[in-house]
Amino acid sequence: TASRKLDVSPDTDTLSRRVADMVVEHSDDAIRARGAFNVAVSGGSLPSMLAKYLVQPDVADKVQWDKWNLFFADERCVPLDDDESNYKLVKSALLDRISIPDAQVFPIDPALSPEACAAEYQARMLKAETTGSGFVAPSGSGVVFDLVLLGMGPDGHTASLFPGHKLLEEHTKLVAHIEDSPKPPPSRITLTFPVLNAARCVAFLAAGSGKQEMMVRIHQQKDSTLPAQCVQPENGTLIWYMDSAAAEKLPAN
Ligand code: 6PG
């Protein structure tokens, strides 16, 4: 199983700084080792927490954005300019302020049905031009992200993998669709456990007192029905970035 680290910041500002530092380090390491940085990001509160320091010139100027390939860990099946779109969130928080080439950002095709959208996203991911970066596994049937950035909902969901949903049993597809998401909007696509657990590093960002109870349950590792707890990269690292409010009820270590 993966080594799991807990990283508790006194406030969300510090959390954003620590996450920015971590992203820069992973980006540098991946580019040095394999020539590209392949990353997946989620929606919710994550894009703004992620971007806060990453876009500051003293940080952003050190990043080789032209070597980034940015994918979505999950996305709502809505137009890309819809307020519910994770792409729109990530674009305004991050992409509009840095310089990843357009061809290296991978939004969904919202014109497709959710099912076709997931299949097309999987196909595009497997064909992604990340030459030599080791992104597509040698078998051709899987991908290895350098970093996946995830949030966690108060019910323990992550990406668009919800407790009790049949998608938790998905072992074949890399990208799957859901049309009955308990968190609106109902139609979404999501990376599945086979992709999340193949990543070199998965980092969760959890801030605020609304995450306290679920953090305790996940830390106890007793409830294998919680999607966020099932993210355990097989050969990678797992880091939980929290603010003190989210971590408040965790036992002191
Ligand atoms: C989405 C998100 C989702 C999110 C969690 C946590 O599209 O809804 O990707 O998985 O990350 O619900 O959201 P918060 O960070 O806003 O609590």
Automatic annotation (TrEMBL):
Pathway annotation: Carbohydrate degradation; pentose phosphate pathway; D-ribulose 5-phosphate from D-glucose 6-phosphate (oxidative stage): step 2/3
A Pfam family per the record: Glucosamine_iso
Catalytic reactions on record: 6-phospho-D-glucono-1,5-lactone + H2O = 6-phospho-D-gluconate + H(+)
Example of a GO biological process term: carbohydrate metabolic process
CDD domains, per database record: 6PGL (cd01400)
Swiss-Prot/TrEMBL keywords: Hydrolase
SUPFAM superfamilies attached to this UniProt entry: NagB/RpiA/CoA transferase-like
GO MF, one example: 6-phosphogluconolactonase activity
Gene3D superfamilies: 3.40.50.1360
EC number: 3.1.1.31
Domain Glucosamine/galactosamine-6-phosphate isomerase: from-to ranges: 10-240
InterPro entries linked: 6-phosphogluconolactonase_DevB, 6PGL, Glc/Gal-6P_isomerase, NagB/RpiA_transferase-like
Job of this protein: Hydrolysis of 6-phosphogluconolactone to 6-phosphogluconate.
Family the entry assigns: Belongs to the glucosamine/galactosamine-6-phosphate isomerase family. 6-phosphogluconolactonase subfamily.
Name assigned to this protein: 6-phosphogluconolactonase
Organism: Porphyridium purpureum (Red alga)
